[in-house]
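# nightly structure sweep
# worker-07 picked up a monomer target from the shared queue
# config: single-sequence mode, recycle default, output format = structure tokens
# input follows
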Amino acid sequence: MSGQIIDATIVAAPRQRNDDDEKQAIREGRIPDGWEETPHKLAQKDRDARWTLKRARAKTPKAEGAKGVEIAIPIFGYKNHISTDRRHGFIRRWAVSSAAEHDSRRFREVLDSGNTGADVWADTAYRSRKNEEFMAKRGLRSKVHFRRAPGKPLSQAHAKANAARSKVRSAVEHVFACQKGPMALFVRTIGIARAKTKIGMANLVYNMRRLVWWDGRTAPA
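# output follows
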């Protein structure tokens, strides 16, 4: 109800120690030379997870108007793509991919056609002409953040719109904070099939916790 919020987060997995030739073979979808002759080694190698860079800001001494230095943190693992409903905050649809896959590639897969609201919130990673046309054809209203043109600042109107949209979109971060904090979500299995099961179960457990919270909130005093 009341529209939906779409986002994705990286779920870390144990780092793989492979040489350059092995990494290239994995990227090409091949089994590296020598691995098939050592079944024990092959069984312990995750060939579905990928490396990606997570951008963040390093903490700096507090100063008026100061911003932290932007840094890129390498992470190995998978991505949990989700759609939550704005009113209740439950995960309604989800998908799993390698960490290197762009967020927007799972946009249509996680878009919840059963939501009774027309508004769709998402960050700039999901803004594209194809996604905007896809939503328009289905009578959905895009609340996806505006992206500035290369080398140009964001217009005042778009900046104001993004600020308003952030107040709604930020609610999805509660899901990821819960999963990575109290739930300590981490993929320790091998392969994307098991990763999907692990992450899917984590999404289900989050919904159970959310339901308990709602029940407690609405219970009579």
